[in-house]
Automatic annotation (TrEMBL):
It comes from Salix purpurea (Purple osier willow). Its main location: membrane. It is a multi-pass membrane protein. The chain crosses the membrane at residues 570-587, 599-632, 715-744. GO terms for molecular function: glycosyltransferase activity. The keyword Nucleus does not apply. The keyword rRNA processing does not apply. This is ANTHRANILATE PHOSPHORIBOSYLTRANSFERASE-LIKE PROTEIN. The lineage of its organism: Eukaryota, Viridiplantae, Streptophyta, Embryophyta, Tracheophyta. Belongs to the MCTP family. Gene3D superfamilies: C2 domain. One of its GO terms (cellular component) is membrane. CDD domains: C2B_MCTP_PRT_plant (cd08378), C2C_MCTP_PRT_plant (cd04019), C2D_MCTP_PRT_plant (cd08379).
């Protein structure tokens, strides 16, 4: 099968950036920052001032500092009525945009009409020292302030430090950047680079065994009792007990997702079904998850009895009934042997179990340099023109990273490098690009998605630096669209080859997933709950990693129906089966003597294998070895990327894409929904026919021994008897030889 080359526009492009890892001599960047291009910055750290003289008639001083370099101006916050203020604020001016030969620092007094100058100083840029980590930070010094004429003022000193550095400087992440000078003080916090950690997730398994001595209000009927469990926003219930007494039994499992630190308790309520949408609470118990036993393997934990509290209305108030307590019998544990899936299984970046005691040693380090992006599309309109304020988010394992936001640029340059510890090579890193919608402190907007890409670590060679420009492809209702390109440098360093090869001998998920497997429905529901918990926790960080960003990175809507995705999956299955189909066609050509020489060779090989059956398996494995060796010449040299042809993104019908982007429940007009429903019915009808035909063939084979058709069963039983006698008398090798020669006979 010849694979058509992907579109040039959507193809991966190899690049040669000027990074330390790619040059023979390296550069002056620290070795920990060798996957990014060197970017020079002028840093100014304004620490504090002392003995500032008052400028108002009131005799008080409201000081702030203004740092000016050419057309760029950075301002600290101002203090009211303070002559010894402390700012400890860093300003970073990009060397590429410096248009002046001197740095000016002004100390001013905040006033209602016009701010008064307290003092100033000037630094010649040619005299500014350079600093390269891991050197210690430059010590700030006290400088005497001068007046407009250059003379020293009577009182007032400013402590600051000025140096030239790179993005490897530890002051870089929290600095005010000159390329974001248009961002107000409310939005500065939303543009900085940050590292986030996903919360540690646990499966909470509640085995509801039985309850005793329930007290229903209506004694004249048999109670229909079930147990409802809630953890935060999650609610599950058992089936109604088959024993309709005051001592019901269930033995049902309820499984929830909880995140450390545990904030919500487990609440169990025993309820009696009185009618449709009408339930009576017979008792409740609240169990803090901090007190629940943690389980590392499949051994059952001890059961416990819990009192059920019942609240009654007395004098118009809800009070706890302390006269008598019913009991509920439970087995509760935090299952640490599972990996809590918060991503799609085949795109997971972490497959370790929750319990740290079960983790295997790390196998290496993944380093990613987020260099730049190019050709980004305008995502919003500002002052009548299109603009984009782009930032990157990368997710691997529990660690999320967010680069700083580059304001108003279609070709942003980040040059930020991040590192992750790797525990499993069969994992995936996801990198997404977003447009920042919160630059001006507003809370109403959303961060728009630009595009994302994934890299599977198992496709990377160890200790090799991959520098590629990845197309940012996004699916829109109008079709697949290229939103720009993301330039990355990636290196996977293996620390232990033995540990890495050992990981390939283990199953994908922890062994608890196979000893006590969860159903597909449970996994889907628990994955959705885990995604919601992660997005909620990360949105509470400062600055927040917003809900829409986390959901896009985790593919929260992957489970929804899509005609395009269904077609793609069908053709993927056909691609897997195409090997068997190709072998069948090749064997048919052998049987029909299309190439007599090949058929004669197959005859000889067949006779040798029949006479020496111990050679069959060695021959098969040798053949697979030769095929693998033959394909080595055409091995892929680049990481795989999204294939628009395989995913049917480039050939999807507009109506199918509109259906894929429809909300759930639907928001489309009734005639369109009716048309799609009829289309789905026709597809389901074909599937139903195929499944029915398969079932019919299976039942026909089963009926050969059921005497439903007496003549067919008689013939089949007689044939089985004759075959048993013949195969008993005749050596198996002779039978195999005769059958094979008959099948391969000349037409």
């Amino acid at each position: 099968m010849q694979k058509l080359p992907p579109s040039v526009e959507f193809a991966l492009k190899e690049t040669s950036p000027n990074i330390g890892a790619g040059s023979a001599m390296g550069n002056k960047l620290s070795c920990t920052y060798d996957l990014v291009e060197q970017m020079q910055y002028l840093y100014v750290r304004v620490v504090k001032a002392r003995d500032l003289p008052p400028k108002d008639v009131t005799g008080i001083c409201d000081p702030y500092v203004e740092v000016k370099l050419g057309n760029y101006k950075g301002v600290t916050r101002h203090f009211e009525k303070k002559s010894n203020p402390e700012w400890n604020q860093v300003f970073a001016f990009s060397k590429d945009r410096i248009q002046a030969s001197a740095l000016e620092v002004f100390v001013k007094d905040k006033d209602v009409v016009l701010d008064d100058l307290i003092g100033w100083m000037m630094f010649d840029l040619n005299e500014v020292p350079k600093r390269v980590p891991p050197d210690s930070p430059l010590a700030p010094q006290w400088y005497r302030l001068e007046d407009r004429k250059g003379g020293k003022i009577k009182a007032g000193e400013l402590m600051l430090a000025v140096w030239m550095g790179t993005q490897a400087d530890e002051a870089f992440p929290d600095a005010w950047h000159s390329d974001a000078a248009s961002v107000g003080p409310d939005g500065v916090n939303n543009i900085r680079s940050k590292v986030y950690l996903s919360p540690k997730l646990w499966y909470v398994r509640v085995n509801v065994i039985e309850a005793q001595d329930l007290v229903p209000n209506d004694k004249s009927r048999f109670p229909e009792v079930f147990v409802k469990g809630t953890v935060g926003n999650q609610a599950l219930r058992t089936r109604i007990s088959q024993i309709k007494t005051i001592n019901p039994m269930w033995n049902d499992d309820l499984i929830f997702v909880a995140a450390e630190p545990f904030e919500e308790p487990l609440i169990l309520s025993v309820e009696d079904r009185l009618g449709p949408n009408k339930d009576e609470v017979l008792g409740k118990c609240m169990i803090p998850l901090q007190l629940v036993q943690r389980r590392l393997d499949h051994k059952p934990v001890n059961t416990r009895w819990f009192n059920l509290e019942k609240h009654v209305v007395l004098d118009g108030e809800l009070k706890k009934d302390t006269k008598f307590a019913s009991k509920i019998h439970l087995r509760i544990c935090l299952d640490g042997g599972y990996h809590v899936l918060d991503e799609s299984t085949h795109y997971s970046s972490d497959l370790r179990p929750t319990a740290k005691q079960l983790w295997r040693p790390s196998i290496g380090i993944l380093e990613v340099g987020v260099l730049s992006a190019g050709g980004l599309m305008p995502m919003k309109t500002k002052d009548g023109r299109g603009t984009t304020d782009a930032y990157c988010v990368a997710k691997y394992g529990q660690k999320w990273v967010r680069t700083r936001t580059i304001v108003d640029s279609f070709t942003p340059r980040w040059n930020e490098q991040y590192t992750w510890e790797v525990f499993d090579p069969c994992t995936v890193i996801t990198v997404g690009v977003f447009d920042n919608g919160h630059l001006h402190g507003g809370g109403g907007g959303k961060d728009s998605r630009i595009g994302k890409m994934r890299i599977r670590l198992s496709t990377l060679e160890t200790n090799r630096v991959y520098t590629h420009s990845y197309p940012l492809l996004a699916l829109h209702p109008s079709g697949v669209k290229k939103m720009g390109e993301l330039h990355l440098a990636v290196r996977f360093t293996c620390s232990s080859l033995v540990n890495m090869l050992h990981m390939y001998s283990h199953p994908l998920l922890p062994k608890m997933h196979y000893i006590q497997p969860l159903s597909v429905m449970q996994l889907d529901s628990l994955r959705h709950q885990a995604m919601q918990i992660v997005s909620m926790r990360l949105s509470r960080a400062e600055p927040p990693l917003r809900k829409e960003v986390v959901e896009y990175m985790l593919d929260v809507d992957l489970h929804k129906w899509s005609m395009r995705r269904s077609k793609a999956n069908f053709f993927r299955i056909m691609g897997v089966l195409s090997v068997l189909i190709a072998v069948g066609k090749w064997f048919d050509q052998i049987c029909n003597w299309k190439n007599p020489l090949t058929t004669i060779l197959i005859h000889i090989l067949f006779i040798i294998l029949v006479l020496y059956p111990e050679l069959i398996l060695p021959t098969v494995f040798l053949y697979l070895f030769v095929i693998g060796l033959w394909n080595f010449r055409w091995r892929p040299r680049h990481p795989p990327h999204m294939d628009t042809r395989l995913s049917h993104a480039d050939a999807a019908h507009p109506d199918e894409l509109d259906e894929e982007f429809d909300t759930f429940p639907t928001s489309r007009p009734s005639d369109i929904v009716r048309m799609r429903y009829d289309r789905l019915r026709s597809i389901a009808g074909r599937v139903q026919t195929v499944v029915g035909d398969l079932a019919t063939q299976g039942e026909r084979f089963q009926s050969l021994l059921s005497w439903r058709d007496p003549r067919a069963t008689t013939l089949f039983v007689t044939f089985c008897l004759i075959a048993a006698i013949v195969l008993y008398v005749t050596p198996f090798q002779v039978v195999g030889l005769l059958v094979g020669i008959y099948v391969l006979r000349h037409p």
